[in-house]
Design brief:
Blueprint: H1 2-30, H2 32-54, H3 70-80
Helix pairs in contact: 1-2
């Protein structure tokens, strides 16, 4: 799961760099508004890439992992209705 997120992040950041570099390398010679539009799209990609890289999937169980304190874990299990009576 981490490799998939990492791959998605680097793919998106690679697209961002390609858009930015190509916009000011050769697209600006053809159309300045197109180059600016490409830079605007490239500007939006890094925050989206960070969200993709840091999101947790349904298989990630970070919210109900045991904390290591048996009393606290028992209390939380009771609140969540996981404790069998």
């Amino acid at each position: 799961m981490y490799a998939r997120r990492r791959r998605g992040y680097f793919l998106m950041m690679g697209v961002c760099i390609v858009l930015f570099v190509s916009a000011w390398s050769f697209v600006r010679l053809w159309s300045m508004p197109a180059a600016v539009a490409m830079c605007v799209v490239a500007m939006v990609i890094p925050p989206v890439a960070a969200v993709v890289a840091n999101r947790r999937g349904p298989e990630d169980r970070w919210w109900d992992d045991p904390s290591g304190d048996p009393q606290s874990d028992e209390w939380w299990d009771e609140l969540d209705g996981k404790k069998r009576r």
